[in-house]
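Kindly inspect this today.
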Amino acid sequence: MYSERRRDTMQRIEVIDSHTGGEPTRVVIGGGPDLGVGPMDKRRTLFRQHYDAVRSAVVCEPRGSDVMVGALLVPPVDKKSATGVIFFNNVDYLGMCVHGTIGVVATLAYMRHITTGAHRIETPVGMVTATLHDDGRISVTNVESYRTRKAVAVEVPGHGIL
């Protein structure tokens, strides 16, 4: 009775694990929550508010680890994009992860969803371009960096104010 009831309530999540220079990425390719449509940052908020148990199940012990990054594939807003993705780890949700993006692109290529060339990937922090090269290498052009303040004094023990 217990095993039947448990089987009825268990959710099956399909993943593919990849490693980028030893950094693990677990890509959720099926069984993830339906987050609807709309911008990736809004869908990430929905994921955080309503499906945090999925995040935990995917990347935390006993099947995950504290160094693993999860990547939930979601339909992109722009049909010209290869995919949308929400990154997360054992602690929280990430706006972007370069090694995770490399893992996502390698996974999409393995699944034969993409071929060589440049591919747009939608993330909560904006559009990222990843290029799958003929030799299997993957390069990523991230969102633009910015600074919020400049000339900030910081006190460093043993060195004073810098």
Observations:
- The mean pLDDT is 94.
- The chain has one domain: 2-161.
- Helices lie at 2-9, 40-50, 52-59, 98-110.
- The longest strand covers residues 23-30.
